[in-house]
């Protein structure tokens, strides 16, 4: 088994066992749009279209639905008033968190069962993987 396959298997096991129960029914594309807005700066409809590799009109429809659900808001770019940027609302942040994060209570229970060396090892491994992932895009 390749190391990448092994890491993927561990990650999917972790997520399967520790994710929050999904209350709000949202699509995978909606999750990806919310993540894009959260993780990148100055995101507009064109950025959404490019990221998802869909047409501007389709991206615009997705954005319109997210605005209607109060997950995002539109705001003017302070550096260029002609540009419209997207931002998460508090509800959008909560929905994204519930659909992408691990259940902190269950995660803390597992971490509390580890010794300090094990905890540090886990944290350092995730930190390193996170840092490297940010540089490959």
From TrEMBL:
Belongs to the SarZ family. It is found in: Cytoplasm. Gene3D superfamilies: Winged helix-like DNA-binding domain superfamily/Winged helix DNA-binding domain. CDD domains: HTH_ARSR. Residues 1-131 form the HTH marR-type domain. This is HTH-type transcriptional regulator SarZ. It comes from the Bacteria. InterPro entries: ArsR-like_HTH, HTH_MarR-typ, Transc_reg_Sar_Rot_HTH, WH-like_DNA-bd_sf, WH_DNA-bd_sf. It comes from Fictibacillus barbaricus. It holds the Pfam family Staph_reg_Sar_Rot. SMART domains: HTH_MARR. Keywords: DNA-binding, Transcription, Transcription regulation.
